[in-house]
Design brief:
67% of the residues lie in helices and 1% in strands. It is mainly alpha-helical. It has a single domain, classed as Farnesyl Diphosphate Synthase, CATH 1.10.600.10. It has a two-stranded antiparallel ribbon. Helix 4 packs parallel to helix 11, helix 5 packs antiparallel against helix 11 and helix 12 packs antiparallel against helix 13. The chain starts with 9 loop residues before the first helix and ends with a helix.
Length: 292
């Protein structure tokens, strides 16, 4: 990783290759950490541990950990101390995908071009592997190098996952399939099912970087706006007209405008960080370039 890719050289950070290098390094950092943190595939009970590793090492982009590392940089810190919480974020994300794919939920047989966990193993093992991943995620919070940050991060992660976060959002998403819905309803679901974990990712990076108060709130708001925009773009690219898709309530053009507006909101939140916010600004720019 070149020094400029960590945001200390303004000219370097303007180049998209600097962001690519940062994302590659982030992926390698969190993958290496998770490989050492998770039980070995042959450790008893081996079938459970194989399922956990299958779910985690399935080719994900590790975008949420990148947000955590980028937020730590925006705070003027080093990404390295944020590795445990970045690992926790990815474990929660992997858990959510395993559960979403189940026949009783979104019923997906394939995930990232491979059989979903409940297909590669079975439904019981998928549920147990997801539960174990969630438990492991909270274990990472106590490994933060700043011990006082652990309880605060763990408590916030609980809120991001629970009835006011991922789980509550999934329940409302399932209920919306055959119900009338509005933009407000859709974004209420997306703010929990998708944006809650993005918001946690950015917020937690700021906590590890030593931020508090208004600056920490800005990272939180960036993550929420970015997460909502991410889901809008995902719905548009999938041309999804079912469930709680934005395309149930907005036209393609309307959704395009909504995504751009959200990304404008996200960028405004991090203007105060100046050059140190280059990773977050670059991620927002890149997502805008993916709008169909």
């Amino acid at each position: 990783m070149v020094e400029g890719a960590y945001g200390r050289d303004g000219a370097a950070t303007d180049h998209p290759f600097a962001l690519d290098e940062f994302l590659d390094a982030s992926r390698g950092r969190v993958d290496s950490y998770l490989d050492s943190a998770l039980p070995a595939a042959k450790q008893h009970p081996a079938e459970l541990h194989r399922a956990m590793r299958y779910a985690v090492f399935s080719g994900g982009k590790r975008l949420r950990p990148a947000l955590t590392f980028g937020a730590a940089l925006a705070a003027g810190g080093d990404p390295e101390p944020a590795v445990p919480v970045a690992g926790a974020v990815e474990l929660v994300h992997a858990c959510s995908l395993v559960l979403d794919d189940l026949p009783s939920q979104d019923d997906h047989a394939v995930r990232r071009g491979q059989p979903a966990v409940h297909i590669a193993f079975d439904q019981a093992m998928a549920v147990l592997a997801a539960s174990a991943l969630l438990a492991e995620a909270f274990a990472q919070c106590v490994r933060l190098p700043d011990p006082p940050a652990g309880p605060a991060v763990g408590a916030r992660l609980t809120r991001a996952i629970g009835s006011g976060g991922l789980i509550g959002g999934q329940i409302d998403d399932l209920a919306s399939t055959h119900a009338k819905t509005s933009l407000e309803d859709v974004e209420f679901v997306h703010s929990r099912k998708t944006a809650a974990l993005f918001s946690f990712s950015a917020w937690s990076g700021g906590v590890v970087g030593g931020l508090a108060g208004e600056q920490l709130g800005r990272l939180d708001a960036f993550g929420r706006a970015y997460g909502l925009a991410f889901q809008v773009v995902d719905d548009m690219r999938d041309e999804d007209l079912g469930g709680c898709s934005i395309l149930r309530v907005l036209s393609q053009e309307g959704a395009r405008g909504r995504a751009r507006g959200l990304l404008d909101d996200a960028r405004r939140e991090i203007e105060a960080f100046g050059p140190d916010g280059w990773v977050l600004a670059g991620l927002a720019r890149r997502l805008e370039g993916m709008i169909p």
